[in-house]
Amino acid sequence: MTTLYVLDVPENTPLAKVAAEDPAVAVGRIGPYFEISANGVIVIDRRATGCRHAVWYSAVGGVARDSRITQHDKNALRVEPA
Amino acid sequence: MTELDHRVQGVDHVAFPTFDPAATVRFYRDVLGFPVVHSICAAGWGPENHPDFIHFFFDIGNGDRIAFFYYFGADPAIGGAPGEKGDVYARFGPDVPEFFVRSRHLAIHVDNEDDLLEYRRRLDASDWPVEMQIQHETIESIYTHDPNGYMFEITRAMRPVTPQEDLDATLTIDALLDVVAEPEPTFGKLLARKAELIVERAADWELAQEAGR
Q: What is the pLDDT of residue B1?
């Protein structure tokens, strides 16, 4: 399982929306956070989100211990099973 | 978590040394339009060889103030060799990275984009033009260095802060304190600890918010 959390604020909503376009990815909620999860890899394309860099690089609220970020650059955020 | 009542009322003053009071007055009073609101002319006294000094204050809004000390006869090299990185208070060698040199700075708040751009116009017409205008996460800022080399920022909020950002800040700090209490703190460890705190506390926080409405 791969899980990351993203705070629900206006700047971050495109990120959750783009993540949800992958049918293998589930976007739920826990309190005011999006809970973005999948059995395998989660990849979110930065340009598809339209997030400017300051938002993009500060959007991740938490990453579950069974998951790890393997890419977080100007192209994409990639989270994989640890 | 703090249970203490919060009684403070913002910045009374923040103070810096200057070796160039003429340029400092031009920058803050004549370029930016910050009124001079207070000054102290003091003969040196006290246990050390304290120089005679002028302590002068500019209003930065809300009655808050930025203040400077001008010490008669003080050598500008006491804060480090002029020409090196940094400001007159602290000079750094060429190997010290810019992120560190720029980390300590003062940011003054304005209410909206019009006000931010007004100060941009004033600075751009001066000897200290805006060096950067940046939209950060939720604020937009302009930057220059004042005549003393101090990093100077004026900033506006692009939207109001939401209640969930206060929760997020609390979880960040609690996670950070947990991570720095262990050896070799990393960003990855912080995000892992914060994920645990989100799972533990975020749902209850939202229920409490709804109950409080």
A: 53
User: Do the strands B65-71 and B36-42 form a parallel or antiparallel pair, or are they unpaired?
Assistant: unpaired
List of chain B residues whose C-beta atoms are within 8 Å of the C-beta of residue A32 = 163-164, 167-168, 202, 205-206
Mean pLDDT of A31-56: 96
For residue B82, what pLDDT is reported?
83
Share of chain B above pLDDT 70, in %: 99
Determine, for residues A61 and B135 on separate chains, whether the beta-carbon distance falls below 8 Å.
Answer: no
- The CATH class for the domain spanning B13-157 reads alpha beta
Q: In A1-82, which ranges are continuous DSSP H helix?
A: 13-20, 46-49, 53-56
Count structural domains, chain A. 1
Query: For chain B, what are the domain ranges?
Result: 13-157, 163-212
**Full domain range(s) for residue A63:** 2-81
Spatial contact of B181 and B166, defined as CB atoms under 8 Å apart = no
What's the predicted TM-score (pTM) here?
Answer: 0.90
pLDDT of residue A37: 98
